[in-house]
Specification:
Length: about 325
């Protein structure tokens, strides 16, 4: 998808900072694409972008209204429709990472047709996808896996790509979610792929490559999440990962949106991930732990990371606070030397 920018990022109405993770990711990794933000009330967390209404954004040259919200089920709230129609009538395209197709809402489809603007449904692809084969591919692959959703898998994968490229390594980010697609410019939103084709889609996303090239596959869901384990399994088999990085959020006690479900143990996720990954790669190995320590002070975070590193014998870091150099060091030690 070639989505025109600059973007006006629509942040919606939720007070939950995780609800705007799509917009936050775009702004963090591609700030040059972002003109401003549209918040529907003052309680919505800010990205410290200018607050701009749709008409002003269109006059100032915004090309696409990006629905930067994420919610359980990926549904489009009916009261968001007038904002989308207004943007289309003002000559802006609209991009959405929700499961619900934009054109399935008659008012949106009609406005897009009349204005000649484009609707980008990032979770829906017209490509014909194969089923997975498990046939070994050339090159090297890394997959991020997590104890839950929204624990930093995309951020960690992008941070690894940036650091590896700075070290002179050949590394490619493989986007598997709507935010990653907006950041990278291409990819497949695997959580909207029919389950039989998730592994095959992942194989297509990370095809044969040069022996020294690393394809860094963005993880989704969690193996022990009762709602989203299936997408993780498909990625795990399709990616055929040589290397794995575990992502976790400190002080998260329950699975997001499921307060009756305790967060899985890190060791259980790691053991299960390795065991299942061996179906398509005989020797997958964890090379690091990426931990969201935003709920801890910096001193608390350092002590927590040190304890995890000692417990698992792996480098542990918070990619936001401390970068991922130690994980890349270990990756090079394990695979490049």
């Amino acid at each position: 998808m070639n989505i025109p920018f600059p973007y006006l990022l629509m942040l919606g109405e939720s007070k939950d900072p995780l609800a705007i993770k799509t917009a936050r990711g775009i702004h963090y990794w591609r700030p040059e694409k972002c003109m401003g933000q549209l918040r529907l009330n003052d309680d919505v967390p800010s990205l410290n972008l200018p607050d701009i209404d749709i008409q002003t954004a269109a006059k100032d040259g915004a090309k696409t209204l990006v629905l930067g919200m994420a919610n359980a089920g990926g549904v489009l709230a009916p009261h968001f429709v007038p904002y989308i129609v207004e943007a289309l009538n003002a000559g802006m395209n609209v991009a959405s990472g929700l499961h619900q197709r934009l054109a399935d809402t008659p008012a949106i489809a009609e406005a897009a047709e009349k204005s000649g603007t484009a609707l980008f449904d990032l979770r829906h692809s017209n490509e014909t996808l194969p089923v997975g084969t498990g046939i070994k591919r050339s090159g090297k692959r890394l997959l991020t896996v997590g104890t839950d959703c929204s624990v930093g898998k995309m951020f960690t994968t992008l941070a690894l790509e940036k650091t590896m490229k700075a070290r002179g390594l050949s590394a490619t980010f493989c986007a598997t979610g709507q935010t990653g697609i907006l950041i990278e410019g291409n990819g497949i939103a695997v959580d909207a792929v029919v389950s039989d084709f998730i592994a095959g889609a992942t194989e297509a996303l990370s095809p044969d490559c040069e022996p020294n090239q690393w394809q860094l596959v963005e993880g989704q869901g969690s193996l022990l999440n009762p709602a989203f384990s299936g997408v993780t399994m498909g990625l795990l088999h399709g990616a055929q990962p040589d290397a794995l990085v575990l992502c976790h959020e400190a002080n998260r006690d329950t699975i997001r949106h499921l307060p009756h479900m305790p967060i899985p143990n890190i060791a259980d996720i790691m053991e299960l991930a390795v065991r299942l990954a061996k179906l398509t790669n005989p020797n997958p190995r964890f090379v690091g732990l990426a931990i969201n320590t935003s709920a801890l002070s910096e001193d608390e975070a350092k002590r927590y990371l040190d304890s995890l590193s000692n417990q698992y014998g792996l480098p542990a870091t918070d990619p936001v606070r401390f970068g991922v150099d130690n994980i890349v060091d270990n990756l090079i030690h394990v695979f490049e030397e």
